[in-house]
Amino acid sequence: MENLIKLDITVPEEMQDLATVALVSKLQYGWEEETLPTGDIRYRVYVENPAFCEEFLAELRSFVPDAQVDRDEVENQNWAMAWREYFTPVKVGNLFMVIAPWMTDMELEGRIPIVIEPKTAFGTGHHPTTALCLACVSKLAEEGRLREGMSFFDIGTGSGILAIGCAKLGLKGLGVDIDTLAVENSEENREINDVAAHFDVAKGSADYTAESFDVVLANILAQPLKDLAADIIARVAPGGCLVLSGLLATQADSVEEVYVAQGLPAARREIDGEWAALIWERL
């Protein structure tokens, strides 16, 4: 079994937002973060694949060229056990609880379980943007906007967590991701959750299909959300819902402006600390 690559990444405090954007773009599962006595921010990241590691570091340095990176290797067999300490159940909205496979016997408090096999590059619900987007799904369902029999399209599906939540509410649809490893992880998680009949997965982006859907979810990054605006809007069926996340709250205005320029009304916003989601309920 190959070792894992451990990265300790240190950036100045004033570069924290940019570093976080880079981390979210590649490592949506989460990471360890601490503020050093100097005021600098240090992130600890684990990755499995050396090629993916180089891709991630290139992305990081495009945002923060002067980031200090210390690289080491750790034994992979210890990582599985480390996940059992790191991974905690995540209550999301009023409907969902995200758990790991070894937690399936726990008390769910009446919530719908979403079982995610922890990986070192995909969403487990611990990152605020994933939780925020899933909370929007929960709220839309409570409001009656998402109902059994409706269709969904999850752009940048990652671990499949949002699509699985929709499928467990009785919706049926498609998740796409440009990352082959993410597609494989989504396929694994849909089987674990027994929703394969309601959740198809494919490699691709917003233009993968010409179909339209009752709800479209895109938990990616601000610039791709802007670049893909026309294709994303085209995927929303008349009267459907659109949820955009992966945004710093400071980026929400500029993203919303692009969608309003395409003919959409002002969005409803959900905020969680530094992060934001934009919601259109009846397009």
Care to describe what's here?
The mean pLDDT is 86. A seven-stranded mixed sheet has the order 10-9-8-11-12-14-13. It has 283 residues and is an alpha/beta fold. Helices cover 33% and strands 30% of the residues.
The radius of gyration computed from the alpha-carbon positions, rounded to a whole number of angstroms, is 18 Å
Mean pLDDT: 86
What is the approximate shape?
A: globular
Topology pattern, helix = H, strand = E: EHEEHEHEEEHEHEHEEHHEHEE
Could you give a short account of the major beta sheet? Answer: 7 strands, mixed
- The largest sheet has its strands arranged as 10-9-8-11-12-14-13
Helix and strand arrangement:
Layout: E1 4-11, H1 16-26, E2 32-35, E3 41-47, H2 50-63, E4 68-74, H3 76-86, E5 90-92, E6 96-99, E7 112-115, H4 128-142, E8 151-155, H5 161-168, E9 172-177, H6 180-192, E10 199-203, E11 213-219, H7 222-227, H8 229-234, E12 236-248, H9 252-261, E13 268-272, E14 275-280
Helix pairs in contact: 1-2, 4-5
Question: What is the structure about, briefly put?
Answer:
Helices cover 33% and strands 30% of the residues. It is built from nine helices and 14 strands. The chain has helices at residues 16-26, 50-63, 76-86, 128-142, 161-168, 180-192, 222-227, 229-234, 252-261, and strands at residues 4-11, 32-35, 41-47, 68-74, 90-92, 96-99, 112-115, 151-155, 172-177, 199-203, 213-219, 236-248, 268-272, 275-280.
